[in-house]
Specification:
The complex is a heterodimer of chains A (446) and B (1068). With 446 residues, chain A is an alpha+beta fold. Chain A is built from 10 helices and 18 strands. In chain A, β6 and β7 form a beta hairpin. The two termini of chain B are 59 Å apart. In chain B, strands 9-10-15-12-11-14-13 form a 7-stranded mixed beta sheet, with helices on both faces. In chain B, strands 4-5-6-7-8 form a 5-stranded mixed beta sheet, with helices on both faces. Chain B has a 5-stranded mixed beta barrel with strand order 20-21-22-24-23. Chain B is α/β, with parallel strands linked by helices and 1068 residues long. Classes of the chains: A alpha+beta (446), B alpha/beta (1068). At the A-B interface, α5, α7, β15 and β16 of A face α7, α8, α17, α19 and α38 of B.
C-alpha cells in the first residue's frame, strides 16, 4: 500500500472464485457438452466434433472470445490435439494459438518446462540444468530424465504430445429450473398471453412439486418474432410453487408486455429455489400457521402491485434514542434476523409521537428530579407518580465531534397525572450548562 | 460534608473497557477532593503501580488522595464479580498469588478463576460484590454463599441513570438488609471525566469488532460513568443514607500500600556469615588484583574505596552482587558480556568484570566523573549485554539460580501507536478500509505522534470533514493507551520472597515462558531488583573473532575486550576514512558520513560519534554547532547566566562536549542547574520523555524549562534549543553511559577489522543475521582489504566460515573459506554429518550421499550452490548427478540414497552454463558471488548510456551532473529526515550513496521503493570525503536482471521462473 497509495485491495475469496469457475463451466456448455474445470483458474472444452457447428475451430474460438470479452472476463485461449498441449499454449504460448493436427510438438518445443503442468519446484530445477525449452527436454534420453524427475514428468510430456491419453473430469451442469412453451403460430392477444403464462407456470410448478422445491422469484420471458424478449417477474415472501397464485401475481404485469409482431415462445425460470416440505393442511392447524399462510398472499399482492418499498414492517433496531429504535424492513424477502427485542429495563410508551410536543409551565426540582406539573396542549397536568430520569446521550458520531457535548442529553421520565394518564416526557439539556433546558412530551402509555 | 472514596474505577489496563489512564483517574479523584480512588481492573493489577506513582507525585505536592490497590475478579464459574482490596501486605500477597494461579491456567492475557480459588486466598481481603444486571434468585443465593464464607463484604451499588435506577437500588438495599451485606455506593467508573464517552464507545466497538453504527445497545446510553464528587454521590444516594460514607470507611480499612514492597532484594550471592557489603568489598579488591596483576594503581585504589562507601551508604551492595553473580557465571561459561548503564561505568564494575572501561587508561578517566550519587533515589541501572547466540543459557541460569518462583521477565506495555490507533478508530467509526489505510499511511514509521492536517490533505482527504475529524480526534486520545502486555526482551525482576506474592505472573505467548504484569518503570518506582539480560550480535561476533585470532607475538591470546590494545592510531585513522563496514554502530550510512567530519582520534570521540547520530541531537540542531567548534571554525563558548549566578555552571556540565549538549544526562543537568528544576520536576521530565504515557506533558515542562533558564539570565534561544533536544530524546534518548559502553565495542570491532580483516569477516558471517550489511557487502569489503575469500565447497567448508592456511607464508592475511551456512536452506545438522563423512574419507558425491546420509534436498542445495566443484562437478552436472542418485526411489524418509552406480546410464550432454548464469545462481543460492559482480555484465551497455562506475565518484568534481547505476543495497527513510530517502547502490567497482529528496521520491515512489537495479541521474555533492549523488531522474533496470539467466545468443523464452536476484534491506 505504501508503494501504490491508490491501490484498491480486495480480500481473496477462493470459494467464491471456485463458484464463479463452476458457473463459467456451466455456461460453456453452450459450446460443448464436455467441459472440465481446471482449478483454480482454467477450464478445458472438448470440442471434438462440435467445431463445425461454428464453421471451424477458428470461428469457434472467435465466437468464444467475443462472448468472454462481452462478459468482461480476462482470458487466454488455445486449441490443440491434447489437453496438455492446449494448456501449455494457453499459459505459455501466444494467446489464441490453434495447433494444427499433430503439430503441437513443434509449437511446444519453444515453451519452458513449466508449460508441462509440473510442480513449480521441479520445473525450476529442470530450467536450472539449462533445459529451458521443451525442445531441449525432448532430446534428453527418457530413462535418465525419468529417474531424475519422476514418471510424472514423462507422463506430462507424453500427454502433451499425445503419446498417452489424458482423462478429464467433465462436469454435468445442474438442471436449471426453467421451462418453455413454443407455439405454432405467434400469439399476441392478451387472453392468449394470460393463458400461456398460466400454462408455463403450471408446467414448472409441477416439476417443483415433484421435487419438493419452491421458488422465491419467478421470471417469465416472452420471446418475440423480432428476437426481443420482454420479461416480467414476481417475488414471493415465502418460497412457493402454487401455480395459480403465482400466475395471479403475474397477471397484472402482463399489461406491460408489448407482444410486438407476436410471441413465438415463452420461458419461465424460478430463482432462489429451495426445498419446501409438502404443506398439508392439518386438521389441528395452528392459528399462527394459518395467519402466515393467509398473510403471505396478501403481502405478495400488495407488494407486487404497489412496489416492494411501499409495504414494510417495523422491526426493533438497537439504539438508545427512542425514535431511532425501530426500523423498516421489507415485508417481502427474507424475514429479518432475529433482532434483539426492546429492553425491558427501559420501558417505552405504547404510542411514540413522531415529533415530540413542547411542554409549558413545567415545575421540577433541580437538577434532575421529575416534574411536579406541566402544561400540554393547553391543559395543566399535576404529576402524582413519576419514575426517572433515564438519561440518554446524543449519538455523537452523527455530528461534528467538536460539537459533541456532555450537556446534549435527554432525561426521560415516566409520569402519571392526577387523572391516571401516563405520559413519557423528557427534558432536553441539563441545568447549568449553556442553553436553558426545554421540556417535551414524547409519548403516551395506554 | 460527606466523605467519599470511589472504589470501582476501571482504568485502560482493563483493555478496551476503561477509557482513562490510571494516572488520570488519580489526578481526577484528587481534583474532585475524593479521599481515595481504587483502581480495579479485570483480573489484573497491571495499572496499579502507575496510579500509585501518580499518587506519590501528587502527595509530594501536598495532596492527600490515595490510590488504592485492588482488582475486579471476574469468575469463570458464574460467581458474581467481586472487587477485592487487600487490607495488608500479606493479604496483597494472597491476591497476587490468586491472580497468578488464574492466569497460569489460561492462555496469554486470560485469567480463569473459580470461587474455590478465592476461598483459599480470602484472608484479609475486603470484598465488594458487583451486582449483575438481573437481580434474580440466583444472585440472592450467591449473596448468601458469599456472606457465609467471607467476613468483610459489601454490596457495590451504582446509579447509572437508567429508567429504573431507584427501583433497582431499592431492591439492592433490600437484598443488602436481608443478607446482612451492607450497601456501599460506587459509580462503576470507566473514565475520569464525561468527555471520554466517545472514546469509551469506540473502545467498545473495537472490543466487539463492530462499527459504531452497528453497536446499538452495546454502547452505554449516557456519559455518567465518570468520577463524581462526594456531594453529587450523596445526592444520588440521598434515599440510602450511609451508602456513600461507607465507601470512605472501607477505604480507611485498607492498610496496604505498594510502597511496602520495596527493597526486597534477593540475597543469594552473599555467602553465609558475611554481610553483603563485606562480600562486595572482598570481591572488588580481589577483582582489582586480577585487573592489575602488576599492582593496583593508587588512583584505582582511591576510586574503588570511594565508590564502595557510596554503595554502602545507598544500600546497593546486593544489586552489584547480583549483577556480578550473573556476569561471573557467564564468564565461567566463556560467554562474552558487557554491562552498560549509569552504574556500569564505575571502577567497581571494572574490577568486577562487568565492563571493560579501564580508569587508568588516558582518556577513559573522563568517564568516571559521574556515578550513582547523582541519581539520588533510584536503584542503580546496569544492563548487561551477552552474546546473542548464547543469551538463552544466561537466562536459564537466572531461573536456576533464583528459581522460577522468584525470577521472572518483566512486561513491556504495548501502547497504541499512531498507525494502529487511526486504523482501529477508523474501523470502529465505519470508515472504509481505503480511507483508514490512507490515514494510517500518513504516518511513516513509528515516529510521528500526530497526524498533521497537511498530510491528510496530501492523501486527498479533507481534514475538516466531520468523519475525518472524528477519527483523528479520537485516535489522538487513544494514542498511548495500553493495548496489551508483552514480555520484555530480557528484563528480569528478582525478589527475596515468592515473586507471585508480589506481582501476578501470567503466561507468555511462548511455551514455558511467563512474565509479570508490571513493566520496567513500575519495577523502578517500587524499587524492586531488576537486571537486564540483553542480547547483542556484536558480542557474538567479537567472541568468534577472538577465537580465530592468531596468538600474539608474546604467545598470549585475546579472550576479553579488555585485552585489546587501547589507543591504536591506525584504528582511528581507519575510522576517520569511514572505512567501517561491519564495525559496531558506526557502519550505518549516517554514521559513515559523520566519521570523516568528526575525525575521531581518541576514545571519547567515539563516545560522541555514537551519540551524535541520533534523533535527539539531530532534532535539537546540535550536530553542526558541535562540528564547527570541533574544527575550530567557531569559538567554544559557554552560555552564561546572569551575574548573580556561578558563571561556569554550564562549562562544568557541557565542557566535555564543547558547550553543546549531546547526551541525555547533560540535558537533565541543564534542567536541574540551569532551569532550577526540582528533583521531582526533573524526575517527571525524565519519565515523560521515556514513555508515550504522558503524550503532551513534555510540552508542559518546556515552558517551565525555558522560563527557568531565562530567569537565570540565559539566552532564550539557547534554552529553546536545549529543550528541543530534550524532546528529541523523548523518543530515543541516548545517555552518555550507554554511549560509553557502545564506544568500547566500536573500538574493539574496529581494532579487529583493522588488524585481522580475515577473522573479522569470518566471525561476522558466522554471527548473521546482525548489523547493517548483508554478507555480499561484508565479503566485498573484506576482499577490498586484501582478504582472499573462497567459495563454499563440500571438500573444504564447515558449517561456519573458517580461516584456511596461507598458500604463501609471506602473506599477511589468511584466506577465508565460506561456510555451508551461506547456502540458503541448508541445515546445520546436514553440515555436521557432511564434515564427519569427509573426515571419514568421503570424496565423491555418492560417498557423501551414503556416508553422511544426506537427504536428496540437502544434496540438491549443495549442487545448486556449486559446492561440488572441487570434485569435478560444476553446478549443472552436479545437480544432474545428484538427481540421478535419487533414481525412481522416492520417499526421503529413508534418508540414505540408494546407489545405483552399476546402472549404466546414457551419457547426457547438458547445455553450457555462462558466467552471468553462474553469478545469478550464486546470488540465488548464497546471496553473493565470488565469481563476478552482476553489474559488470551490463557495463558495456551502461557505458553506452554514459553511466560512470561508482568508483569514479571519488575523482569527479563537486556539483557535476552524472549518472551512476547499480544494485540497490539499502533503502532508508529516517523519520528525522523529513521525507528524504537514502539509497545505497553497488556496482562492480564500489558503492554510491544516493539522496532522494521528497519531490523526486513522490514522483518516482514505486520505483524508488521497489527497484532492484537502477540508474540514478543526478548531481554530485561532496563534503570532504563524504560523497552523495542527489537524484533527479531514475532509469529502472530491474527487469534486465533476469537477462543474466538467459542463454547467450538466444531470444528470451517466455519463462515464469524469475525471482529477485538480490533483496535490499529496507528501513522505514
Amino acid at each position: 500500500m505504501a508503494l501504490v497509495p491508490g491501490l484498491i485491495t480486495a480480500e481473496a475469496e477462493p470459494e467464491a472464485d471456485a463458484q464463479a469457475l463452476t458457473a463459467l463451466v456451466d455456461w460453456c456448455v453452450r459450446f460443448s457438452p464436455a467441459v472440465a474445470a481446471d482449478r483454480p483458474d482454467g477450464l478445458f472444452l472438448d470440442i471434438s466434433g462440435v467445431a463445425h457447428l461454428w464453421g471451424g475451430e477458428g470461428e469457434l474460438l472467435a465466437d468464444f472470445r467475443a462472448r468472454l470479452a462481452a462478459n468482461g472476463l480476462p482470458f487466454r485461449l488455445a486449441i490443440a490435439d491434447t489437453p496438455g498441449a492446449a494448456w501449455a499454449l494457453a499459459h505459455h504460448g501466444r494467446d489464441g494459438t490453434i495447433a494444427p493436427p499433430n503439430g503441437q510438438g513443434e509449437l511446444l518445443a519453444h515453451l519452458p518446462p513449466a508449460a508441462l503442468r509440473l510442480d513449480p519446484e521441479a520445473a525450476a530445477q529442470i530450467e536450472r540444468l539449462g533445459l529451458r525449452r521443451l525442445g531441449q527436454l525432448m532430446e534428453i534420453p527418457r530413462a535418465p530424465l525419468g529417474r531424475r524427475f519422476g514418471a510424472a514428468t514423462l507422463d506430462r510430456l507424453d500427454q502433451a504430445l499425445g503419446r498417452t491419453a489424458e482423462a478429464l473430469a467433465f462436469r454435468r451442469p445442474a438442471t436449471p429450473w426453467v421451462d418453455r412453451l413454443a407455439f405454432f403460430e405467434p400469439i399476441s392477444a392478451p387472453e392468449d398471453m394470460a393463458r400461456v403464462t398460466e400454462d408455463v407456470t403450471a408446467k414448472l410448478c409441477a416439476r417443483l412439486e415433484a421435487e419438493s422445491q419452491g421458488g422465491r422469484r419467478f421470471e417469465v420471458a416472452f420471446h418475440r418474432v423480432d428476437g426481443k424478449a420482454p420479461a416480467i417477474a414476481v417475488g414471493l415472501s415465502l418460497p412457493g410453487r402454487d401455480a395459480r397464485r403465482i400466475a395471479r401475481l403475474l397477471q397484472p404485469k402482463l399489461e406491460t408486455v408489448d407482444p410486438g409482431f407476436g410471441v413465438e415462445s415463452v420461458t419461465i425460470a424460478a430463482y432462489a429455489v429451495e426445498p419446501v416440505g409438502g404443506r398439508q393442511v392439518r386438521i389441528e392447524a395452528g392459528l399462527e400457521a394459518a395467519v402466515e399462510d393467509g398473510l403471505a398472499p396478501l403481502v405478495d399482492r400488495l407488494a407486487n402491485r404497489l412496489g416492494p418499498c411501499a409495504v414494510w414492517r417495523a422491526a426493533p433496531f438497537e439504539s438508545h434514542v427512542p425514535e431511532l429504535s425501530a426500523t423498516r424492513t421489507p415485508a417481502l424477502g427474507a424475514p429479518p434476523p432475529q433482532a434483539q427485542p426492546w429492553n425491558r429495563e427501559a420501558p417505552r410508551p405504547v404510542r411514540l409521537f413522531r415529533r415530540p410536543e413542547p411542554l409549558e409551565q413545567v415545575v421540577a426540582l433541580l437538577p434532575d428530579d421529575p416534574p411536579i406539573q406541566f402544561r400540554w396542549r393547553g391543559r395543566l397536568h399535576r404529576v402524582q407518580r413519576a419514575e426517572g430520569p433515564e438519561r440518554i446521550g446524543e449519538e455523537w458520531w452523527k455530528g461534528d465531534i467538536a460539537d459533541a457535548s456532555i450537556t446534549h442529553v435527554r432525561d426521560y421520565y415516566r409520569v402519571e397525572d392526577a387523572e391516571g394518564g401516563r405520559f413519557w416526557l423528557f427534558r432536553a439539556g441539563l441545568y447549568g450548562g449553556g442553553d436553558a433546558p426545554k421540556w417535551w412530551l414524547h409519548g403516551l402509555f395506554g | 460534608m460527606t466523605r467519599y472514596a470511589e472504589l470501582q474505577a476501571t482504568s485502560n489496563f482493563s483493555f478496551l473497557r476503561g477509557a482513562s489512564h490510571p494516572w488520570e483517574l488519580v489526578t481526577g479523584a484528587d481534583a474532585l477532593g475524593l479521599e481515595a480512588v481504587g483502581i480495579c481492573d479485570r483480573n489484573s493489577l497491571a495499572g496499579v503501580v502507575r496510579a500509585w506513582r501518580q499518587m506519590r507525585d501528587l502527595q509530594k505536592g501536598g495532596s492527600r488522595v490515595r490510590a488504592l490497590t485492588g482488582c475486579r475478579l471476574d469468575f469463570a464459574d458464574g460467581t458474581p464479580s467481586l472487587l477485592v482490596y487487600p487490607s495488608d501486605r500479606e493479604a496483597y500477597g494472597r491476591l497476587t498469588a490468586l491472580l497468578t494461579a488464574g492466569q497460569r491456567r489460561a492462555e496469554k492475557g486470560g485469567c480463569e478463576l473459580h470461587w474455590e480459588d478465592l476461598l483459599l486466598h480470602a484472608e484479609g481481603q475486603l470484598v465488594l460484590v458487583v451486582p449483575p444486571e438481573r437481580l434474580d434468585q440466583a444472585f440472592e443465593g450467591d449473596l448468601r454463599r458469599i456472606r457465609g464464607e467471607l467476613p468483610d463484604v459489601w454490596l457495590a451499588a451504582a446509579r447509572r441513570y437508567g429508567a429504573r435506577d431507584l427501583q433497582r437500588l431499592a431492591r439492592l438495599d433490600a437484598l443488602a438488609q436481608a443478607s446482612a451485606i451492607p450497601m456501599a455506593a460506587t459509580n462503576d467508573v470507566l473514565y475520569h471525566g464525561p468527555e471520554r464517552r466517545p472514546l469509551q464507545d469506540v473502545l467498545t466497538c473495537i472490543r466487539e469488532t463492530c462499527t459504531i453504527h452497528e453497536a446499538g445497545l452495546r454502547l452505554a446510553a449516557n456519559a455518567e460513568r465518570h468520577l463524581k464528587p462526594a456531594s453529587e454521590m450523596a445526592r444520588l444516594f440521598a434515599r440510602f443514607p450511609g451508602a456513600v460514607e461507607r465507601s470512605a470507611e472501607i477505604a480507611e480499612r485498607i492498610g496496604f500500600d505498594l510502597g511496602q514492597l520495596q527493597y526486597e532484594y534477593p540475597d543469594e550471592p552473599v555467602p553465609a556469615g558475611k554481610t553483603a557489603i563485606q562480600h562486595l568489598r572482598d570481591l572488588s579488591w580481589a577483582g582489582a588484583e586480577w585487573r592489575y596483576p602488576k599492582g593496583v594503581p593508587d588512583k584505582v585504589r582511591k576510586l574503588v574505596a570511594h565508590e564502595l562507601d557510596l554503595i554502602e551508604k545507598l544500600d546497593y551492595p546486593n544489586y552489584f552482587l547480583t549483577v556480578h553473580d550473573i556476569v561471573q557465571w557467564a564468564r565461567s561459561q566463556d560467554i562474552l558480556c558487557q554491562g552498560r548503564g549509569s552504574a556500569a561505568n564505575s571502577c567497581v564494575c571494572y574490577c568486577l568484570g562487568v565492563t571493560a572501561v579501564d580508569p587508568t587508561q588516558p582518556d577513559q578517566d573522563l568517564l568516571f566523573s559521574r556515578f550513582i550519587s547523582e541519581n539520588r533515589d533510584e536503584p542503580p541501572d546496569i544492563d548487561v549485554d551477552f552474546e546473542h547466540a548464547r543469551r538463552e543459557e544466561v537466562m536459564q541460569y537466572v531461573y536456576r539460580r533464583y528459581g522460577r518462583h522468584r525470577a521472572a521477565i518483566v512486561a513491556t506495555v504495548i501502547h497504541y501507536r499512531p498507525r494502529m490507533a487511526i486504523r482501529q478508530v477508523g474501523k470502529a467509526l465505519g470508515l472504509t478500509e481505503d480511507i483508514t489505510a490512507a490515514l494510517a499511511n500518513t504516518v511513516w514509521g513509528s515516529y510521528g505522534d500526530d497526524v498533521p492536517d497537511e498530510h491528510i490533505r496530501q492523501t486527498g482527504l479533507d481534514p475538516a470533514a466531520p468523519e475525518i475529524r472524528r477519527a483523528t480526534t479520537l485516535a489522538q486520545q487513544l494514542l498511548g493507551f495500553p493495548r496489551h502486555l508483552s514480555q520484555h526482551v530480557g528484563g528480569y525482576v528478582l525478589t527475596k520472597r515468592r515473586l507471585d506474592e508480589t506481582v501476578p505472573i501470567g503466561n507468555a505467548a511462548m511455551e514455558d515462558r511467563t512474565f509479570i504484569e508490571w513493566d520496567k518503570d513500575d519495577i523502578d518506582a517500587l524499587k524492586l531488583m531488576k537486571v537486564d539480560v540483553l542480547a547483542l550480535g556484536m558480542l557474538t561476533a567479537l567472541k568468534k573473532s577472538f577465537d580465530l585470532l592468531p596468538p600474539r607475538p608474546d604467545a598470549s591470546r585475546i579472550t576479553d575486550i579488555a585485552h585489546i590494545p587501547q589507543g591504536d592510531p591506525e584504528v582511528y585513522e581507519m575510522l576517520c576514512h569511514a572505512d567501517s563496514v561491519g564495525v559496531f554502530q558506526v557502519e550505518s550510512r549516517a554514521q559513515m558520513s559523520m566519521l570523516p567530519r568528526l575525525k575521531p582520534r581518541k576514545f571519547y570521540d567515539l563516545v560522541i560519534e555514537v551519540a551524535i547520530v541520533r534523533p535527539g541531537p539531530i532534532q535539537g540542531d546540535m550536530v553542526h554547532p558541535y562540528l564547527k567548534r570541533r574544527d575550530g571554525r567557531e569559538a567554544v563558548s559557554y552560555p552564561r547566566p546572569g551575574p548573580d549566578y556561578p558563571q561556569d555552571e554550564m562549562e562544568a556540565i557541557l565542557g566535555k562536549t564543547l558547550g553543546v549538549p549531546l547526551f541525555q544526562e547533560q540535558a537533565m543537568r541543564v534542567a536541574i542547574v540551569g532551569a532550577e528544576f526540582s528533583d521531582d520536576d526533573a524526575d517527571g521530565l525524565r519519565r515523560s520523555m521515556a514513555t508515550f504515557r504522558n503524550v503532551g506533558t513534555v510540552g508542559n515542562y518546556g515552558l517551565k524549562f525555558v522560563e527557568g533558564m531565562a530567569r537565570r539570565g540565559y539566552d532564550r534561544e539557547f534554552a529553546e534549543r536545549c529543550f528541543k533536544q530534550i524532546e528529541g530524546f523523548g523518543s530515543y534518548g541516548f545517555p552518555e553511559s550507554h554511549a560509553i559502553s557502545f564506544a568500547i565495542l566500536v573500538y574493539a570491532s574496529a581494532w579487529v577489522k583493522r588488524h585481522h580483516p580475515d577473522a573479522f569477516l569470518a566471525s561476522l558471517l558466522n554471527s548473521q543475521p546482525m548489523g547493517f550489511y548483508q554478507p555480499a557487502q561484508l565479503v566485498r569489503d573484506a576482499r577490498e582489504h586484501g582478504v582472499e575469500v573462497r567459495p563454499p565447497d563440500v571438500m573444504f567448508s564447515h558449517w561456519d566460515c573458517t580461516i584456511e592456511a596461507k598458500d604463501d607464508p609471506r602473506e599477511r592475511l589468511r584466506p577465508v573459506r565460506l561456510g555451508l551456512r551461506q547456502i540458503k536452506g541448508f541445515k546445520e545438522d546436514d553440515a555436521k554429518a557432511l564434515v564427519a563423512a569427509r573426515e571419514a574419507g568421503a570424496d565423491s558425491i555418492e560417498a557423501f550421499a551414503r556416508r553422511a546420509r544426506l537427504s536428496r534436498r540437502a544434496l540438491e542445495l549443495l549442487a545448486e550452490a556449486d559446492a561440488f566443484r572441487s570434485l569435478g562437478f560444476p553446478r549443472r552436472e552436479a545437480l544432474w548427478a545428484v538427481k540421478g542418485l535419487a533414481g525412481e526411489w522416492g520417499a526421503e524418509t529413508h534418508a540414505p540414497l540408494l546407489l545405483r552406480q552399476s546402472l549404466k546410464e546414457a551419457q547426457v550432454e547438458l547445455p553450457f552454463m555462462s558466467q552471468p548464469q553462474h553469478v545469478a545462481e550464486d546470488y540465488r543460492t548464497t546471496s553473493l558471488s565470488l565469481k563476478d559482480h552482476p553489474v559488470r555484465f551490463f557495463r558495456e551497455e551502461l557505458a553506452r548510456q554514459k553511466v560512470v562506475p561508482c568508483s569514479a565518484l571519488k575523482t569527479v568534481r563537486d556539483r557535476r551532473r552524472l549518472a551512476v547505476g547499480g544494485l540497490v543495497l539499502v533503502r532508508q527513510r529516517p523519520g528525522t529526515a523529513k521525507g528524504v530517502v537514502f539509497m545505497t547502490l553497488e556496482d562492480e567497482t564500489g558503492i554510491a550513496n544516493i539522496v532522494v529528496w521528497r519531490d523526486a521520491f513522490e514522483a518516482n515512489r514505486r520505483l524508488v521503493m521497489t527497484s532492484a537495479f537502477l540508474i540514478v541521474h543526478g548531481q554530485v555533492q561532496k563534503e570532504g570525503e563524504v560523497i552523495h549523488v542527489v537524484a533527479e531522474r531514475f532509469t529502472d533496470l530491474s527487469g534486465r536482471l533476469s537477462e543474466l539467466r538467459e542463454d547467450q545468443g538466444q531470444i528470451a523464452a517466455h519463462s515464469k521462473v524469475t525471482g529477485r536476484l538480490i533483496r535490499s534491506r529496507d528501513f522505514h
